[in-house]
Amino acid sequence: MDFSELIQIRQSVRAYQNRPVEREKLETLIESVRLAPSASNSQPWKLIIVDDPEIKDQVARATFSALISFNRFAPQAPVLAVLTIERPKLVTQIGARLKDREFSLIDIGIAAEHFCLQAAELGLGTCMLGWFDETAIHKVLAIPEKIRIGLVITLGYAAPGTPIRAKIRKNTKQMCSYNRY
Ligand SMILES: Cc1cc2nc3c(=O)[nH]c(=O)nc-3n(C[C@H](O)[C@H](O)[C@H](O)COP(=O)(O)O)c2cc1C
User: For ligand 1, is residue 126 a contact (CB within 6 Å)?
Assistant: First the structure.
């Protein structure tokens, strides 16, 4: 598969098969995050792979509530990947403060997309989840209080017959210009 095709088939998957993800594939996914670029090569993340069914269910249940129910599909995924935001190198911290930039958030986003594109190449579906009960996940996974959670990513084999949807996106004119804003 070439890269353009990979970008087309990567989509948020919100229905999964009850089928485990092979350990070898998990290791390839871990490597895809490990190799992600970051500001000053700070690599300000930790990746927690949650595949123990009981723990995974507790984390999944922290991604929705009776009121905010759009992540109700999360428990179907056999694996959840949790990306924490770790303290970057001192030089990156100083740079970020001087320039008022949130490098760590940019870094986490790139790492997450590495994970999702690699998953798509392996025939797996993902969905990044930005809405979750951070305190609850801290408790379940024993994440120290001061460490923020960047994203939770659902992972698994898409439900049979899941079509590749057309992408709903701004058109090129709306999102790109040459040589000036
Ligand atoms: C930072 C971030 C947070 C997201 N949070 C959620 C979420 O909580 N629940 C969800 O179902 N999708 C979530 N998404 C998925 C987006 O809705 C999705 O990427 C977007 O609609 C484009 O669709 P596609 O991924 O299928 O191309 C999130 C995506 C990103 C990048």
Answer: no
Q: Which residues contact 80 (CB under 8 A, 6 or more apart)?
A: 50, 56, 59, 60, 74, 152, 153, 154, 155
CATH class of 3-175: alpha beta
Q: How far is the CA of 102 from the centre of ligand 1 (A)?
A: 20
**144 C-alpha vs ligand 1 centroid, how far in Å?**
26
Structural domain spans, the chain? 3-175
* 131 Cα: distance to centroid of ligand 1 (angstroms): 10
Q: What is the mean pLDDT of each run of 10 residues along the chain (181 residues)?
A: 97 98 98 97 97 98 95 98 95 90 96 98 98 98 97 98 97 98 97
